[in-house]
């Protein structure tokens, strides 16, 4: 039985949201649509092309809403995401990471033949030559952009000279077309202070401007200058160098972005709403002052900190992970408003393929379930791990670890879940401190032994 079997009968049912099986990923559809329209209006007002990053949602339904509001297409981090969205009718896609293996390049040029507008970034002359060879065996010219390293040292060329070298290699290619440059300052997106973030982006944009001037002076003027993000979109628009925005997280928002002063009006005045949430059910209240919910490590990403409690308990209620399947909220002497607690999704949770379906809810008419949306994620790009062997991919050692921690396969291939990173504390000292603060407010709350004496997660090598 899958999510559709469990929940399809609830669509349109008044108050049906409370009957969803938990933990469940829920999109507040009204908030999502307001976010989409607000960013589209911002781009129109500033004369910018809007190409949102689909790594945020991995959903053709949401991509189509963004395009209907004015976006020209989407960005994808991986080839598999682009293929999956193309299968659902998304026809203009920029792949924001280099595609370098022979099998991937073969897939890339096939995709280029079947959609009207495919673009990919490059940062290496050998890769450019290989792409040219692959594309020359098809009927379609492939558009490429030079990836400029903003100082992260992840991908991209580090200098104007290197960019010119790549531009000349592209110009000599028979099956490639030079389109422009990509410049994404990921490190600066989450600087909380608007003034500090602006100063950092001004510095990086000066570097980008120098690269563009060098390219133009060599007869390689970029037509497209793409980049930016939710954290810097207002600054990027003011500086006037980018002409295409790759914003992504604005559709959902998360705690890290909500902690930032995004547009210079204070962090308490976020311009976009928290649209993606997790509904968790209270499963135990036997200990005074605390409640256990059915949402733990497996329900969300954990490297961005715990989720924020949004509803069902007093604002600011602390949340602690209590293992794979459970979380604990410290309510003190307060009363729970209901048996469902709504959590703001932690940073990067929406980028993990936690669930293949998002449940879209509207607040009017009794918080009814509006629809079920599938996430278009290629299995080839969502490698999942059982305890001892990888599944869903090839060519990996049986003791291989995912780069950000172990992932486990749950319920066949219908659901994926990410749990604790290797060596992560189940409950750390910050949890102990929060309990101390809770005890100050409500001295009757006991401090569990595990919180005062944290232990490490044991994982097999």
**How many DSSP helices?**
13
Supply the number of structural domains: 2
Beta-strand percentage?
Answer: 15-25%
- Oligomer classification: single chain
Quick one: CATH class of the largest domain? Alpha Beta
Q: Give average pLDDT, whole number.
A: 80
The CATH level-2 architecture of the largest domain is identified as Alpha-Beta Barrel
Number of extended strands = 21
**Unreliable runs, pLDDT <50, ≥5 residues?**
352-357, 377-461
Biggest pleated-sheet summary: 9 strands, mixed
Report what the structure shows.
This protein has 2 domains: 30-258, Alanine racemase (TIM Barrel, Alpha-Beta Barrel); 276-344 and 383-418, Beta Barrel (Thrombin, subunit H), CATH 2.40.10. The chain has 13 helices and 21 strands. The chain has helices spanning 3-7, 29-45, 60-69, 79-87, 102-114, 125-135, 160-172, 194-217, 233-239, 255-258, 364-367, 429-441, 449-452, and strands at residues 24-28, 49-50, 74-76, 92-95, 117-122, 142-147, 176-183, 224-227, 244-245, 276-284, 290-293, 308-311, 319-321, 327-330, 340-344, 357-362, 368-374, 384-385, 390-391, 407-410, 415-418. Strand 10 (276-284) and strand 11 form a beta hairpin. Helix 4 packs parallel to helix 5 and helix 7 crosses helix 8 (194-217).
């Amino acid at each position: 039985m899958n999510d559709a079997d469990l929940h399809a009968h609830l669509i349109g049912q008044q108050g049906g949201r409370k009957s969803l099986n938990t933990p469940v990923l829920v999109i507040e559809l009204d908030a999502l649509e307001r976010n989409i329209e607000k960013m589209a209006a911002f781009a129109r007002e500033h004369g910018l092309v809007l190409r949102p990053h689909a790594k945020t949602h991995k959903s053709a339904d949401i991509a189509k809403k963004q395009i209907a509001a004015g976006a020209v297409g989407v960005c994808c981090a991986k080839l598999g995401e682009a293929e999956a969205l193309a299968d659902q009718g998304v026809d203009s896609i920029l792949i924001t990471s280099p595609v370098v293996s022979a099998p991937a390049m073969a897939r890339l040029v096939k995709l280029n033949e079947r959609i009207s507008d495919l673009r990919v970034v490059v940062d290496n002359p050998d890769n450019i030559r290989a792409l040219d060879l692959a594309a020359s065996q098809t009927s379609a010219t492939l558009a490429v952009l030079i990836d400029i390293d903003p100082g992260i040292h992840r991908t991209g060329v580090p200098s104007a000279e290197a960019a010119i070298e790549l531009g000349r290699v592209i110009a000599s290619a028979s099956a490639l077309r030079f389109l422009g440059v990509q410049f994404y300052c990921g490190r600066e997106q989450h600087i909380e202070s608007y003034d500090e973030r602006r100063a950092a982006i001004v510095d990086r944009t000066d570097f980008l401007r120098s690269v563009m001037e060098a390219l133009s002076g060599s007869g390689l003027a970029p037509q497209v200058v793409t980049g930016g993000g939710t954290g810097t979109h207002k600054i990027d628009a003011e500086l006037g160098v980018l002409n295409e925005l790759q914003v992504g997280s604005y559709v959902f928002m998360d705690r890290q972005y909500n902690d930032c002063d995004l547009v210079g009006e204070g962090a308490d005045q976020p311009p976009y709403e928290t649209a993606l949430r997790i509904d968790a059910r209270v499963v135990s209240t036997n200990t005074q002052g605390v409640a256990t919910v059915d949402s733990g490590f497996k329900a969300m990403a954990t490297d961005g900190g715990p989720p924020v409690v949004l509803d069902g308990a007093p604002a600011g209620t602390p949340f602690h992970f209590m293992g794979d399947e459970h979380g604990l909220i410290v309510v003190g002497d307060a009363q729970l408003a209901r048996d469902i607690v709504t959590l703001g999704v932690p940073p990067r949770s929406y980028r993990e393929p936690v669930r293949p379906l998002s449940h879209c809810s509207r607040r009017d008419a009794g918080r009814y379930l509006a629809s079920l949306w599938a996430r278009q994620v290629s299995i080839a790009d969502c490698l999942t791990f059982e305890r001892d062997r990888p599944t869903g991919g090839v060519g990996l050692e049986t003791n291989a670890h995912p780069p950000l921690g172990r992932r486990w396969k749950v319920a066949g291939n219908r659901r994926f879940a990410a749990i604790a990173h290797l060596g992560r504390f189940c409950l750390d000292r910050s949890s102990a401190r929060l309990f101390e603060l809770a005890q100050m407010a409500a001295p009757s709350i006991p401090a569990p032994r595990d919180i005062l004496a944290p232990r490490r997660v044991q994982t097999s090598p």
